[in-house]
Amino acid sequence: MSRPDLVLLHPPSVYDFRRELKLYGPISEVVPSTPIFEMYPFGFATIAGYLERQGYRARIVNLGLRMIRSPSFDAERFIASLHPGAFGIGLHWLCHAHGALETAKLVKRHHPDLPLIMGGFSASYYHEELVEYPEVDYVLRGDSTEEPLAQLLACLREGREADDVPNLTWRDQQGRIRVNPLSHVPETVDIRPIDQAFMVRTVLRDRDLTSNMPFRDWLEFPMGSGISCRGCTHNCITCGGSAYAFNHFLGRDKTAFRPPEALAEDVRNIRGFGKGFLIIVGDIRQGGMDYARRFLNAIAVLREPITLELFTPASEGFLRQVAEALPNFSLEISLESHDPIVRRAFGKHYSNEAVEKTIEAAFGAGCKRLDIYFMIGLPKQTRQSVRDTVAYCGELLNGFGEHGRLHPFISPLAPFLDPGSLAFEEPERHGYRIFHRTLEEHRRALLHPSWKYVLNYETEWMTREDIVLSSYEASLELNRLKARHGLMSPDEVAQTEERTTKALELIKLLDDLGEIDEETLQELKPQMEEINSIVWRPRNDWELGLGLGKWGLLRKGYFLLNQGSIAFLSQLRTVMGGRRVSQRQVEGTASPSGGQE
Ligand code: SF4
Description:
The structure is a single chain. The protein is α/β, with parallel strands linked by helices and 597 residues long. 45% of the residues lie in helices and 13% in strands. The strands form four sheets. It has a seven-stranded mixed sheet with strand order 2-1-3-4-5-6-7, sandwiched between helices. The chain has a six-stranded parallel sheet with strand order 8-11-12-13-14-15. The radius of gyration is 24 Å and the shape is globular. The protein starts with 5 loop residues before the first strand and ends in a 10-residue tail after the last helix. The chain binds iron/sulfur cluster. The site of iron/sulfur cluster has 8 residues, from loops. Iron/sulfur cluster (SF4) binds next to loops.
């Protein structure tokens, strides 16, 4: 088998989390990952797919997941055994600062001559600091790095300097740091997303299932997403994906949309796999009501389950149109706080009444499930305000929770306020205090044994201590409410209460101890491991009931067989195509980036 041109490594949040003793907080309970954040960014899949279509072979390795799944998996030996043309490491979310940089060190230790490329939102933000690390050769900036990466691989293959590669920060052969213009910012989203079929084909080709899986329980709960846009039209102040952040740090002054008909086609392709969780990322109304209507017309009628995001309350008319096109629809909305003053300070300008009308209209139109999210760590929010938010969840459940379709969630803004967000860039103006600013400070903070000190912020209204205590308090109270409404079992609630009590005791102990030596940490190891949920994270309740169903195994078997033959044929085509590409390169007529999409 030919060697890959690029191995894309997704690191764990902290390397090596199996040895570092840390108390993780309830920081990942509303996402599919464990606190190691083993879910790789969506960009990995679009990059791998794009490169394949340009004639390159890219292999995804979810290093974090492999380390979670097998305590004996030796990540360093594994990296040493790989022999690609180049390595790529994702630093999209800042919570991977430690894992990404340590993984980079391992790569360079074993492959000092191979180019190492980093990318992602956090890498873009910290590109100048990042390229100062001796392990890092190239940093690709921006939200659309598929094409610049193909151009960089072409340079590497041909031994050329990367002067013309857009969006690249790099060290040239003289060791000078160069910052190429951030000029590749496409106005529409033309890159096709990767469907599960592509995933299965690469699994079969690389004979490596775990490395390709986006997160731990993916096989059991396959999850797909249709991406409606790059950028956002809103400006929530803590969000690194806001219009402000895109404009100031990713070179995007206008949200780029996937054409609505193409989005509908993407969704149908992804849906082919079965009835796993499928979400359209980005409110489809962001591109205007005409965009939303075109999408709904193009998708109508899709009877499989699908979840839409709402960034603002929606009208009854719109929800009826959604129901006609997608009779099995669910919704997600982030309200942040019950208090409109807090919500406004966060950057969202709508009333509770408008949200309640939306919930009523959604259920009236047949919405199968509505998840509503609240957050801790917001401007103008106090501990009492968080308690009131949980009480409001109770009111919502009393009013709309009758059929078990309404699911409220609350979680802390953790571990980091996003660099590039308004709150990070102008903290005083929004009532924030920032503790870690640089990449290196974040890398070091991730090693702290208590998640309280990993947090990179506090607010005028809540200290880090308040945020931590409030998070546990709110989660306990919300769980009790959920149990009363049949959304959690008494056993689950009892388990969480026990863990929370122990976590609070341990946080206090860590505080009392102050500086903690290795020996003390080792003594605390059993307690920490019992509390951390890396191995046994309870299921998010959106996962429940979304398995493959009664025909799941048969469907999966048929699917694997079918994709196996496609993989074989595509392998054959690659071999034949590869010969053609080589011939053209010898003739000097080929531009690997100029291939067909
Ligand atoms: S949190 Fe706000 S700014 Fe960020 S992506 Fe969502 S709607 Fe846009």
